[in-house]
Amino acid sequence: MTSNLEILVQDIKTFVREELYPLEPILLQQGYYAVEAAVYEKRERVKARGWWAPSIPRHYGGLGLNLPDFARVSEVLGLSFLGHLTFNCQAPDIGNMELLMEVASDEQKERYLMPLIRGEIRSCFSMTEPEHAGSNPLYMSATAVKDGDDYVINGHKWFTSSQEGTAFAIVMAITNPDAPKLHQRASQIIVPTDTPGFRRLRNIKIMGEAGEGYFTDAEIVYENVRVPQANLLGREGEGFALAQMRLGPGRVHHCMRWIGICERAFDLMCQRAASRELSPGKLLAEKQTIQHWIAESRAEINAARFLVMDVAHKIESGGAHAARVDISLIKFYVAGVLDRLMDRAVQVHGALGITDDTMLAFAYRRERAARIYDGPDEVHKSAVARHILKEYGVNVSI
Amino acid sequence: MTSNLEILVQDIKTFVREELYPLEPILLQQGYYAVEAAVYEKRERVKARGWWAPSIPRHYGGLGLNLPDFARVSEVLGLSFLGHLTFNCQAPDIGNMELLMEVASDEQKERYLMPLIRGEIRSCFSMTEPEHAGSNPLYMSATAVKDGDDYVINGHKWFTSSQEGTAFAIVMAITNPDAPKLHQRASQIIVPTDTPGFRRLRNIKIMGEAGEGYFTDAEIVYENVRVPQANLLGREGEGFALAQMRLGPGRVHHCMRWIGICERAFDLMCQRAASRELSPGKLLAEKQTIQHWIAESRAEINAARFLVMDVAHKIESGGAHAARVDISLIKFYVAGVLDRLMDRAVQVHGALGITDDTMLAFAYRRERAARIYDGPDEVHKSAVARHILKEYGVNVSI
Amino acid sequence: MTSNLEILVQDIKTFVREELYPLEPILLQQGYYAVEAAVYEKRERVKARGWWAPSIPRHYGGLGLNLPDFARVSEVLGLSFLGHLTFNCQAPDIGNMELLMEVASDEQKERYLMPLIRGEIRSCFSMTEPEHAGSNPLYMSATAVKDGDDYVINGHKWFTSSQEGTAFAIVMAITNPDAPKLHQRASQIIVPTDTPGFRRLRNIKIMGEAGEGYFTDAEIVYENVRVPQANLLGREGEGFALAQMRLGPGRVHHCMRWIGICERAFDLMCQRAASRELSPGKLLAEKQTIQHWIAESRAEINAARFLVMDVAHKIESGGAHAARVDISLIKFYVAGVLDRLMDRAVQVHGALGITDDTMLAFAYRRERAARIYDGPDEVHKSAVARHILKEYGVNVSI
Amino acid sequence: MTSNLEILVQDIKTFVREELYPLEPILLQQGYYAVEAAVYEKRERVKARGWWAPSIPRHYGGLGLNLPDFARVSEVLGLSFLGHLTFNCQAPDIGNMELLMEVASDEQKERYLMPLIRGEIRSCFSMTEPEHAGSNPLYMSATAVKDGDDYVINGHKWFTSSQEGTAFAIVMAITNPDAPKLHQRASQIIVPTDTPGFRRLRNIKIMGEAGEGYFTDAEIVYENVRVPQANLLGREGEGFALAQMRLGPGRVHHCMRWIGICERAFDLMCQRAASRELSPGKLLAEKQTIQHWIAESRAEINAARFLVMDVAHKIESGGAHAARVDISLIKFYVAGVLDRLMDRAVQVHGALGITDDTMLAFAYRRERAARIYDGPDEVHKSAVARHILKEYGVNVSI
Question: How many domains does chain B have?
Fold first, then answer.
């Protein structure tokens, strides 16, 4: 790490700790809307510091970090659940920005990309369907049928994350049902959320909370939603190719964010062990089990970071395709580390650990999804093995 | 199992599935008060069937099951989070009833026990303090000082479960601060919840939900709460002895309830595996990992049930003290099985698993407490080892 | 357990500890032949005590215990690696005896069964082939072709356990290659080991030792081995059916033997923890990790015993077929417990644990096979799941 | 990795595979002396290639690799159990060479170090005592008492690795029993193994094998062993300081050797999965469990390598003391990875896995020691936690 980057990372870490940690209790106890104004005020400070949209190229108005450098920043942003949002590099907007920079028309960029980058609007990505296994995205029912100059979209989606408050969705729908290959049937289309027929059924209640605003996951029906064909992203039938494209850097972002969560949990775990008395003068930290959890956690977090940073460098130098096996590998490995860290940190906190008085319970229940979304770990493990076994001359089904 | 018991268990299981499962989505999506009336209506059916208060002796108005038989019933009640409540054998009321039957004066029985048994009121148990490790109950700050004919109680408690809606609390407080032994300093005292100075600060938000009514955990301050000395349970200084007394059968109840949850999760997991298609015609159940989770879960649940039923029989024949090591053993063993079951069942359900559209997410996050309350697993494991190592001639600290 | 059985089990346990434990260092350091004479001398004492061949019916000359009672005895015999051999209920002879009692002709019984029961000879079972996965016994190459009054057997077998020193083998070979169903193609045939063409290539070196005598696993070629057709067991094509028949009670024997090994390891682990000083006056037993291993081991062994004894009772009352799913279940569950026990006991012993100065290293490396033989755990888990999933209406491949 | 190093590593890997793999079956089936001559012949080829003693500085006659570069070489040497021995960088000689280079007198170097470097002799290190826990090296009984110009050494040691065939031992013994600090009481002294009173009681039988030559672990008594005081290494009382000094780079060597073993096991596991048929045409590699083991193993090995290489760089740039916490961390982390890899690879091989027909069983049983020697994992975990917790202001006992 060059020293400039090191300074940047430390400065951002300090900012997250000093400016964002104090907002967390409000988020945890009162919900997103109770902190939204404060977050937007912090966003101005971020802009003033020159840190805005750290992964976006400078000519688009961002800080212009390359993937490995942004990965390091993503980790320290991940220390708080408000980090990425405050720096305008939160999922799913960051993925949408990356996609739009790559394939959007000039008009699409002007209308959708630039307001996103400037932080004026938020967006969402509408792909997963309740009727089909998310682990197999090729298996999809939503359709977009041409009618005059428009597409007419019908479908049922859920886990359209952060939809509440967004200006537009990017929707995956089947446009070419007769294409010979399954992965050439779908397209990605921009749908403003105020389009007639776009209807949110609910914010799904997940692990006890339906959430608010950015912290929601919507179930949506698209009923004869009509948008101009000009809202198509890239070419017809490219939907899966575009979806794949966003996954590589996206997994690095996620994994580094998870590592940030791990570091936060690790810090809380150590603080707790070092301060909680089991009896007068007898610290929790004296317990060998606690000591072992601390040591194992340290090893696992360090290992996870090395693996992810290696992938970041590989993508930076060779592209996402060349690193795709390693991308699958870090998905399940880091999700596993995250899972164990949350569990240990909760246990070390005892009854406090299951309350929303710390960020741990939020992380424990919310990030349980890490082993599921973007493909469950089981699928990624088989994908990695499938690739390895090809070198041994066999082509296994998974 | 005698065949009469087998019929009873099957009948109750059918009742739980047919009458209580349909209430669960309302509980999960709308909260306790949305189902409370329905639960109380079901309670009348339970009474009509002769199943009311299954663990309470007949002369008090219950069904009079002994511990092993009630354990079997507790398992099938545990299939639904509304089971025990509907049958009036829910914690903490069941523990309070058992305690009051054992030590209450005639007046205390008339005023507090009988309305509990009849289901007219609910109660709570106020012991854990946020400032002290729950794993060491001897380490407590709340005090009850004699003043005239009264006790004046001051203290700060949390995790006073199900307090909202209760008529009285049983409070642990130090009455004899100078007693030579730590475990002779505290007493248990009945405190009506409408006594001046009894103040609920909040229902603690736990894993995303503060909950309502029965499904709450209160943080309470006792500020100069004055109750008659006649509200003392048993003798002064007996607080810990009484607390111990409730733990033996209580752990059996809990463990069998957990096994019920495990069976429910197991059933949902198998249903999901047998119906979810990964691609047209390709079932999730074909995956070896899913198969192995099913097999391992079956083995672990069966093992857990054998262990707990063995303890139930031991307590029934020899008393809780003789079985105390086994009671610790089932605490951590069954909590571990529960933890693994919930995790597997969630994972098998994918995105659905983390939503509140099934009971799994509720169980996953709510029962995370199982490894913590009534003493964290780590303490119970050391307690078991300490006992075993005595047979090898050493007296270890834990 | 009836009190007579309890007395028997305790007496046999005392015998194993007092008479067989002292032979173990000789076995471990000098090999089987160094203790063989002593073992045969102990066998006479066993006969004198009336304990000989405990699972064999009285009219054949055994003690006549039913399966659950023998299971209890098998556990205490399992405390020593010499237990079953000394009592003449060691695998594979016990399985061969059970088979011969069931299906042998009078002449076969006279010639092969009775000397086995009397302990005059030993036998082996020759089924697994190196070229084929042991997990799929239907997939076999050895053949037995009729020629005149004889069968002429050709094949290549390995893991023919305990072959060195045996009088005869029971060989599985394809006799009906054209039978419509795979499982109707093989037969079991008695082959005296001095028959021309029966050739042991080697005692396989397993985890460091080729072993001697009873403690060997042979690789064998059958080259035109000619035996009378009268040596056929049961009917032609019944080979797999007979193999299945021996597995049910056999797994109970094995599992209880494993539990005996676990109890031995547990005892050694506790002894070590209670005596080893990390520094003057500071016992290993004070370490929380050690305490937790002890507690977890106690829970797991108890759970394993309950599961196995339940299967023993099921087989006794309903036959092996009715219990076949539970038989698969205990196979993998108890093998897992055994694996963890051995690992913990070795670790607690430190450097001593990996030496052959205790029985632990022998158990650690030798019983690693437990997760593999009689079908690897992975196969049994899928078999259990397959059965469970049938109740959910699906028929999965495994 | 610079490209020169990459070429070197690949060349050595090719050498190990082509020249040493073929010797392994002889080692495994016939023992060390059956391959010793071949190994010494291969050593000449290694010298001819310029690879001899890769970690030893050029002016002493080695290849002069720095620690990170040698770490990479150590991994590929670790692919075979004969790798390090053939390249003259095997433990314990490499540790003795490093020590002697650092502290030996000119005469000691001439007499002991140079023949070691030239590969003319082997040496051993005699520290662990059966009576004391190896996890606490300060707790030692052997003594070296001055008498005239000599030391007279008495003591009882075991796990003096590779002693058979050595020319000298470096012995740890108490020379200053009254030193105020425990760690200032012992010294390291060179003892030629032909000195009167140096007596090997036995090569300890470990996991089934006493071994031969290099592959042995001796139990030794020192009975009035008299050596000149000139054989003292460094200064009196420095024994523990010198022992610590060897541990840092030594752990890196070991860990990279373990990673080599892991890669070998991984390769065998994949080969097996890709070739073993469960039934005609149905490969083991199709099984999801096998796929997951492959993927998890790949992730864990990669993670382990990153962690160890990071430590190698830290030691190279900042010295072993600065990296001591990370050195503890890799000890337990990589030992854990090794343990899991061996277990999975054995299981994938089924019955073959437990035989000595592959190197897996040797690795499985022999490297079980990895979690024990140089301090059991439990001690290292607590040491790491102790250091971390200091940053949180507490000083815990371990």
Answer: 3
